[in-house]
Structures are given as structure tokens and as C-alpha cells.
Amino acid sequence: MQVRDLIGERLRENLKSSLSELHELVARSLGDYGQRYTTNRRLLVEILAAATKPLGISEITVSGLGSDRNLPVSSTYRNLAILEECGVLRKLAGPNEQVRYELSEELTGIHHHHLVCYGCGRVDDFSLGYKLEKAIGDAVRAISHEYNFQVTEHRVDFVGRCIVCVG
Amino acid sequence: MQVRDLIGERLRENLKSSLSELHELVARSLGDYGQRYTTNRRLLVEILAAATKPLGISEITVSGLGSDRNLPVSSTYRNLAILEECGVLRKLAGPNEQVRYELSEELTGIHHHHLVCYGCGRVDDFSLGYKLEKAIGDAVRAISHEYNFQVTEHRVDFVGRCIVCVG
DNA sequence: ATAAGAATGAGACCTATTCTCATTATATGG
DNA sequence: CCATATAATGAGAATAGGTCTCATTCTTAT
Question: Are A112 and A127 in contact (CB under 8 A)?
Fold first, then answer.
């Protein structure tokens, strides 16, 4: 695969040395909302932490348990929603209306954006340079003021076709 | 409503004086794909041209015909998809996974971005300054090259809460 | 006008997500 | 530790947004 995911790899390495730290952060986030950090939820967090890109529901449930059993659908939906509410995960919509989840930036500390392929629906991470991020931050403040809108997050997605789909 | 939509208004005024021009452009786009520009499709285009923001399916079908009758669901979906394929419309996903459509920028000539409210799901248009757009354009080119990805479109959405939902 | 092909729209169908509820796990106080 | 209360689980039913089918209607070209 030519489209590499450097950020994802960095994150993965980071996490390898600090999975327990991640779990601790998540546990605290959940605790703030009176939620428990159960086996299932830990599993979801680990799956998403190991991924180098936002994952769709089916990718999550299938990869979840051993080779035969899948994660139960209803619990997965429920837990993903709860984890999102507690600020642990972020939900995003790819093309094809496929819903995807990733660890929140608040948790990973790695601000990034998405490359969305309209051909295959693949979504990858990338990051912008410091200057551009700063300029966007300024714009956020201006717009926030001008439109009387409290901006909590900005999304910059580049949409197009990955090298596989371009042919 | 405090959150005004200046772009939408500008567009609307523009269109008032040139609806026929718009229809001509759409007809040509459809023609290129061997599609007809039927009454139904004209209606969809006019609904979206009159809107000051991307519309969800239900908003489209309900506003479509007289006070009693709604636009038929199946035809609406089909036609929206066709209009999108022909480059007349752009489909985007708000929060709540609600799908929304707007006239393509290629058609309106007005490049803009979106303010997405997580409270009520409302989506409004806004535009960035020239300098920032240029910087983003540069980034697109760099990323395109670095990731071997053909970027055809960039999306900059600011997500948060509108003044109504902030309370 | 007529024939050929598109578009239409009602409703069946499909599928992703949510809901329900009986069961199981977890935490806490005695 | 046990008992109890409460939360989480997961199988399957229910729902809803979206797609498909097909008989009918509209277009377009001859």
C-alpha cells in the first residue's frame, strides 16, 4: 500500500509504551460521567488505538474477538456511543455514509485531518503544517465571533481518489 | 435568527436574476451524461438554489410540492443521486448522519465552507479569506504529492454549537 | 402519430441502527 | 466475603432511512 500512515504509526508506537496510561485516561473520562470501564469498552479502545485510521462498525466488530466470534452488535453500538459522549472517541462520517470512529485527539494529543477516498471509502490520517494550523485557528476565532457560533472543533478533509482508485 | 447567511443571500439574489442561466448550466451537465432535465429535477434544483444552506432529504421532499403533497421519496433519492453524479449537486453528511445536498460550487461559483451545529444539526455556510484559501490550496498540492492521492475537493468545517444551542 | 427508451412513483424490500428485556457482571456497604 | 443494588451485556425484535422493482407515464426522435 503506497498511501502510508505515518501518524498512525507514531501513535501506535506511542501507545505500545503507554497503553496503561491510555486506559487510565479513558477510565477517568468515563468516571466523570459515572460510567464503568468494562472489558468490552477496554477492548474497543484497544482496537481503535491499534488502528492507523478511523474504523467502521463492521471492522470493529469483526476484529474484536477471536477468529470465530464477533463482538455483539448492540453492545458495540451502545459502547461506542457512550465512549463518544465521554469524549473518548470521535465519530465521523466517511463517504458511503459509513460511520467511523477514532480515538479523540484530546486523548491521543495528535491533531490530524483526513484523506477521504471516494472510490473505495478508505479514510487515512494526515497532518497540516504549523503555520496553516495557526492560520486556521485564527479563522476559527474570527468566524466564531462573526457568526455567534461556538466552534469546538475544526475539520479539514481532503477528498478525492487514492492511488488504487485513480486508475 | 442571529446566525445570518450572507453567502446564501448573495447566491439567492444572484439566482433570482439568472435562474434560467442556472437551468441552462444544469441541462448541459445532465446532457453530458445522457440524462434529461425533467420537471422533477428542475424542481430539485430550484429548491436547493433557493435554500441558504444544505438541505436534508425530508426538507426537500416536504417543501417540494404544494402544501399537501410531498415529493415522492424514491424519485427524489434517485434524482438527487443522478444530479450528484452529473456534478450538479454535492452531497454532504451533517451530524446525526443526516445526509444533505447543496448546489455544487462549480455551478454557483461560490466557494464556501460549513458551520455545523452539534446541538440541533443545523448547517450554515461561511467563507474563508483569500489568504487562508490560498494556503489551503498549497497544502492540498503538497499532500496530494506526498500521499499519492488525487485531491479533488477540500472541506473545511467548523463544528460546535450555534447560539441557540449554546445556552 | 408512433415507437423506443427514460423517468416516474407506489410500495415491497433491505440493512444499519436502536430498543427491549432477561441475564450477567460489578461495585459497595455490612 | 456475602448480599444487595445498580450497571452492563447480548440476543433478537423493532424501527427507520434508503434502495429496488415494476407497471405506468412522459419524452424524444423519427
Answer: yes
Which chain B residues contact residue A121 at CB under 8 A? none
DSSP category for residue B70: P
Stretches in chain B below the pLDDT threshold 70: 1-17, 63-68, 94-97
Residues facing residue A93 across a β-bridge? A99
Distance of CA A71 to CAs A23, A40, A43, A50, A103, Å?
Answer: 20, 9, 10, 17, 19
Closest chain A residue to B5, measured at CA? A147
Which CATH number does the domain housing residue A73 bear?
1.10.10.10
Ranges in chain A, pLDDT < 50: 1-7
What does the pLDDT read at residue A82? Answer: 97
Q: Is the CB of A73 under 7 A from strand D?
A: yes
Domain coverage including residue B118:
6-166
Task: Count the domains in chain A.
Answer: 1
Inter-chain residue contact A126 with B117, CB threshold 8 Å: no
> From the list A97, A139, A150, which residue is nearest B128 (CB)?
A139
Contact A147 B153 (CB under 8 A): no
Q: Is residue A1 part of a domain?
A: no
Q: Which three cell numbers stand for residue A105?
A: 485527539
What are the φ/ψ torsions at residue B110 (nearest 5 degrees)?
-110, 105
* Cα–Cα distance, A150 to B98 (Å, whole number): 21
**Per-residue model confidence (pLDDT) at position B51:** 86
Closest residue to A151, CB basis, from B99, B139, B160: B160
Residues in Cβ contact with B50 at an 8 Å cutoff, skipping those fewer than 6 apart: B12, B15
Whether B131 and A131 lie within 8 Å, measured CB to CB: no
